[in-house]
Write a structure and sequence with these properties.
Layout: H1 2-13, H2 19-39, H3 49-69, H4 72-97, H5 102-124, H6 126-135, H7 138-143, H8 146-163
Pathway: Sphingolipid metabolism; Lipid metabolism; sphingolipid metabolism
Organism: Psilopogon haemacephalus
Binding site for Zn(2+): 11, 147, 151
Length: 164
């Protein structure tokens, strides 16, 4: 819901400043994934307050810095850090804890990382891709919308990861 709300805010305004509201929920949802991955093997129904505090603080600090800097590279690094933590923990889980889930784990990881890769390509080469799309037939141009592929692939990868 956080990603959806942020996306809605961005797409309804179509202002560059509002794009920040589209990207910050990526940080928040990854923090939820990190928390779940580190809490999924508990025997007691307790809350890991130190981890919760760390992730909330991380989200808050990243939000404040990003809203002030408005630097996409900062966001990409902070998001990439969370994704790296998720990937490392997930690989540990499918290698050592639930090895029979390896196929699902690696499929989820591959789909998500393909989306992450396309998102970064779109961020880095946005102007060049836009110019290239103007020269292509509309159908081909639509398929090269890497930001859209990012949403599709990370949504699918996240869904598969939740199944994991």
């Amino acid at each position: 819901s956080a990603v959806g709300l942020g996306s809605w805010c961005f797409h309804m305004t179509l202002k560059y400043e509002m794009q920040l509201l589209d990207e910050l929920p990526m940080i928040y949802s990854c923090c939820v994934f990190v928390y779940c991955l580190y809490e999924c093997f508990k025997y007691k129904n307790t809350v890991n307050y130190p981890l919760l505090f760390l992730l909330i603080t991380y989200s808050f600090v990243v939000s404040i810095v990003y809203l002030n800097l408005k630097e996409p590279v900062f966001h990409q690094i902070m998001y990439g850090t969370l994704v790296s933590i998720i990937v490392l923990r997930s690989v540990y889980i499918v290698l050592w804890v639930y090895p029979w889930l390896r196929g699902l784990g690696y499929t989820s990881l591959t789909v998500f990382l393909m989306g992450f890769f396309l998102w970064n390509v779109d961020n880095i080469f946005c102007d060049k891709l836009r110019a290239l799309r103007e020269k292509m037939p509309p159908v081909v141009g639509a398929v090269t919308q890497f930001h859209a592929w990012w949403h599709i692939l990370t949504g699918l990868g996240s869904y598969l990861h939740i199944l994991l």
